[in-house]
Structure formats: C-alpha cells, structure tokens
Amino acid sequence: MWWIVVTLIVLGIILMLVEMLLIPGVGIAGFLSLGSLGAACWYAFAEISTAAGWWTTLAAVVVLAVLLFFALRASTWRRLELKTEVTSKVGTESEHVHVGDRGIAYTRLAPMGTGRFGAVSCEVKSHDNTMVAAGTPVEVVAIEENRPVVKPITQA
Question: How far apart are CA 124 and CA 58, in angstroms?
Fold first, then answer.
C-alpha cells in the first residue's frame, strides 16, 4: 500500500517540476501535481492509518516547501539563463553610401524602397516623399538616421 502513496508523491514532484521548468504558469501540470500530492495524503489517511496520513502530509508539505525555496532563489534560474549576447548589426550597408553617390532605385520608392549604389544595396528614402519608379537613376543628397535620402537625377 505504501507504493501507491510513494508513487503519487513522486508523480506530484515530477508534475511540479514540469510546471516550474517546462510549462511555467498556473496550468494543468500544477493542478495535477497538487491533486496527486493531495491524493497521496488522502490515501494514506483512508487506507493505511492516521499516523501514516500525517507523515505523508508532512512529507508533501516539506517537498513543496523545498521546491518553492529553490524556485524562488535567483541563482537557480541564472543557471538556466542564456548568457550569449547579440553583437551583430542590421542594416549596416548604408554606412558605405555617402552624399553625392549615384545609383539606381532598385525598387519603387514610395517614398521608401531599395537603392543600389555599385555593389551596395540599402534602404533609401525619396527626398521630397514622392514616388520614384524602379530603375530611375538617383543621387544621394543627405543621410538621415543612417538612411540615405535620394533624389532622381534628371537627364538634361
């Protein structure tokens, strides 16, 4: 009969660990864990003896207290944290484009799109917020917020 109580307590511990580590929040695993521990206590009281019920209840409370203690310690979660840093940059192509550079509007600028300046393609903006057709020759007139501002080159 003790094997049933021990099995229910072990199941309760496993479900509580699943709730804390795998699917955090107050979910089904947490309720099933408390139900399993409660069933172990009830079974010990009902089928074994009152003393066994109290010992089982004490064991369940101690197990929950130990799990709660380790769950609330900051050092417990630091071992599980991701410690790598993202050092890459996005959109650094525009650093190679300078005022006066000439290229083409690779896509339609409405008023933003992609411009190509030699081998460098980057996001550009029309200088007067007008639409510029794809394939139109453009010239960089300014750099605002690391984004080239371009105007169409008129063929004279």
Answer: 69
For residues 150 and 122, give the distance between their C-alpha atoms in angstroms, rounded to a whole number: 12
pLDDT digits (tens, 9 = 90+) for 48-71: 888 988 988 898 889 888 877 877
pLDDT of residue 11: 86
Quote the tokens at residue 3: 């094997």
Domain boundaries, the chain: 2-78, 93-152
Determine the pLDDT at residue 81: 75
Which of the pair, 93 or 100, is modelled with greater confidence? 100
- For 93-152, CATH gives 2.40.50.140
Reported as type and span, the H/E element at residue 69 is helix 50-72
Q: How far from the centroid of its chain's Cα atoms is residue 44's Cα?
A: 43
